[in-house]
Amino acid sequence: QVQLVESGGGLVQAGGPLRLSCAASGLTFTSHTIGWFRQAPGKEREFVGAISRSGSSTIYADSVKGRLTISRDNAKNTVYLQMNSLKPEDTAVYSCAAAWRPSSLTTMTTTRAYDYWGQGTQVTVSS
User: Fold this and answer.
1) Under 8 Å CB-to-CB from 65, ≥6 apart: which residues?
2) Which of 33, 75, 82, 96 has the most crowded Cβ, counting Cβ within 10 A?
3) Exposure class string for 86-123: b at 16+ Cβ within 10 A, else e
4) 83-127: per-residue pLDDT in tens?
5) For strand 78-83 and strand 18-25, is the pairing parallel, antiparallel, or unpaired?
6) d(CA 109, CA 114)
7) Residue 64: count of CB within 10 angstroms of its CB
8) Cα–Cα dist 79/49, whole Å
9) pLDDT tens digits, 11-69
10) Buried b / exposed e along 34-60 (16+ C-beta atoms within 10 A)
């Protein structure tokens, strides 16, 4: 049974940092691209970023580029989303997702590219 569990969400002031984690189990972690998505109230889920299976490549949405960094520790089956200079508009439920397909990261920016999803963790940025 595949499980993706996000943690690290919470309330943070604008300008502050936060690090989210996505712990995976029940799958061959190194065979999966991992993506991060977020969904704000009343809005559709949107792509945040993704990291390749080896961790050597990443891709980010323009709205977060330069402020958010994705990394992974394959020995711990965990992916991290380091968020800096947070803005109130970053407030959302953040979810990680895993995809088993040898595709370019440029094809991994939509929800339908992913096979497994976590439940999400709430991030609230106060102004």
Assistant:
1) none
2) 96
3) beeebbbbbbbbbbeeeeebeebbeeebbebbbebbeb
4) 999 999 999 999 999 999 777 899 999 999 999 999 999 999 999
5) antiparallel
6) 9
7) 23
8) 12
9) 999 999 999 999 999 999 999 999 999 999 999 999 999 999 999 999 999 999 999 99
10) bbbbbeeeeeebebbbbbbbeeeeebb
Q: What is the DSSP letter of 16?
A: -
Side-chain half-sphere CA neighbours of 71 within 13 A: 7
Structure tokens at 95: 């979810």
Q: Which amino acid does the sequence have at 60? A: Y
